Amino acid sequence: MSTTASFKRLLACVAATTMCMSMAACSSPQTPSSGASSTAKQSASTVKVRRGGITPLASSSTSVQVAPVFSLTAPVKGWFHAEAGQGTYVHAGDLLGTVGDQQVKAPVDGVIETVTQDNDVAVNYPLFSIRYGGMSASVDATALLATIGSDQTLAGRFQITGAQGPTDCTAIVDDGVAASDSSGEAAAGSATTAQGAASTRAMQCLFPKDVQAHPGQNATVVLTAPAIEDALILPVTAVAGRLGSGQVSRRDGDSFTTVDVKLGASDGTSIVILDGLKEGDSVSATAPNLVPGAQS
Fold first, then answer.
1. Which runs of E-coded beta strand occur in 165-281?
2. CATH fold of 60-224, please?
């Protein structure tokens, strides 16, 4: 099967599962104080926890935009030293600076707009802001980034509605730069709540400059992390929750018990179960709190 056909099948799968994912993700399971509770009535349809592989992903139907200035942040804590200055036009792969013994390189061609002064910096501290001279599209990658290692590299493809494709993203970068306000610097690519806690983390897929695109066009973007080859998994429709923790209804004899589970990455169809269940356990095919008349 060609790469294009595989991507189009993936887009169809993403569209088909969006409604089911939204229903389960929006349910806010009320965690019992004991960590599990009995449910007398539950859907008779069950699925089993099984071992398998998934490719973690985040996808979005979004709009083409002029690529915002983005930040490069410190990969580790340590002493930062800049090798390139403000206003410099850099090429993909150019060395921009170092943090300790870690190199910071340009992911794409672009102009450096700001550079942090040499300093002892924390991990994820903004070092450079770069302007890419092309188009992009943004994806909410909060759940994906929360469930993969910080050292894992994202890849991405996009399809502009009514145009040729799909096409590989030139690079995946933070959506925007760290901004200064009266309360200090805000984290790059994050929206903040009234309490100041990060609520979302968006990433942008930078389009190749030879792709003909216009701001406002509709596009679908899929970001993927390295595949997980062997893990305990369940259908996402059987799990209430997404970010780190959730609940399932485990079958115990003739009844069901609401069980807390620790969650890992998802591919939109299946989700990794890190703790709380074992291989072969039977659970309700419908997430807790979504069955009419069920008790949580």
1. 167-168, 171-174, 180-181, 184-185, 190-192, 198-206, 218-224, 228-235, 245-252, 255-266, 270-275
2. OB fold (Dihydrolipoamide Acetyltransferase, E2P) (2.40.50)
Look-up of token digits 């090429």: 91
DSSP for 185-204?
A: EPPTTEEE-TT--EEEEEEE
pTM for this model (two decimals): 0.73
Q: pLDDT of 124-143, one tens digit each?
A: 999 999 999 999 999 999 88
Q: In whole angstroms, what is the distance from residue 24 CA to residue 57 CA?
A: 17
| 142 contacts 25 by C-beta, under 8 angstroms | no
Tokens of 270: 């299946």
**How open is the CA angle 271-11-217, to the nearest 5 degrees?**
125
What tens digit of pLDDT does each residue of 151-176 get? 788 999 999 999 978 999 999 998 87
Asked if CATH classification 2.40.420.20 holds for the domain at 3-55+229-284, the reply, yes or no, is yes
Query: Measured in Å, how far apart are the chain's first and last C-alpha atoms?
Result: 44
* Per-residue tokens: 266: 């998802």
